[in-house]
Design goal:
There is one protein chain. The chain has about 200 residues and is an alpha+beta fold. It has helices at about 1-15, 70-80, 90-100, 110-115, 130-135, 160-180, 190-200, and strands spanning about 25-30, 35, 50-55, 85-90, 120, 145-150, 150-155. Strand 1 (about 25-30) and strand 2 form a beta hairpin. Helix 2 runs parallel beside helix 5. It is globular and about 55 Å long.
Length: about 200
């Protein structure tokens, strides 16, 4: 069932243009370990054999080679016990902002104010490196979506469906932000209205 969930989310990521080629990886934390997509797999056409079980140190416990980004997942699960699912992909708009080292923090839509405080950019490091994992995981202290400089984005949640929705919404936020800049700049929601939104969220 859990592998089928990963396969379904991979398909949805591909259909929504949130992944391309063999980029990206998905994982779920289970009682037996971490289920993660294998190296070199296409998220849009995963098979059960493309999902590998690893332990909390990143060691493979089943056949196959886990994603080279496995330590990113391991470190986030280690940091946040409430997180049970992680998606890392390279969506066009989030990756554009990540490549410009620009965080997303403009109060331009009520939905994104309710969903994100901001989306920061973790410092650049070599893809698949422990340094990249360490640079990124520190932002998960109080964030659930983080961009990685010149790389892509990571979304985490208590289940895969919610992680997917976070990634999809973050990409929408990035797209709208870029479009507002093309049209000359957005008009921000006022601080008083933001406070009303936060009061609503807290209720």
């Amino acid at each position: 069932m859990q592998k089928k969930n990963i396969i379904e989310i991979g398909r949805k990521l591909y259909e929504k243009n949130l992944t391309v080629g063999t980029s990206g990886n998905i994982s779920i934390k289970t009682k037996k370990g971490i289920l993660i997509t294998a190296a070199g797999t296409v998220l849009g056409s995963l098979k059960e054999k493309d999902i590998v079980l690893i332990d909390e140190s990143g060691k493979e416990l089943s056949e196959g080679t886990a994603s080279s980004e496995k330590m990113l997942h391991v470190k986030i699960y280690e940091k946040r016990k409430d997180i049970k699912a992680i998606i890392h992909t390279h969506p066009v708009y989030l990756t554009t902002f990540a490549s410009c080292h620009q965080c997303l923090n403009e109060p331009i839509m009520s939905e994104t104010i309710l969903y994100f405080e901001d989306i920061p950019v973790a410092e650049y490091a070599m893809p698949s490196s422990v340094e990249l994992a360490n640079n990124t995981v520190k932002y998960f202290e109080n964030r659930n979506v983080v961009m990685m400089a010149n790389h892509g984005a990571v979304a985490a949640a208590e289940n895969l469906e919610k992680a997917f929705l976070k990634m999809e919404t973050a990409e929408y936020y990035a797209k709208v932000t870029l479009n507002t800049r093309i049209l000359g700049g957005s008009k921000y929601i006022s601080n008083s209205e933001i406070q009303k939104l936060m009061d609503l969220k807290n209720k």
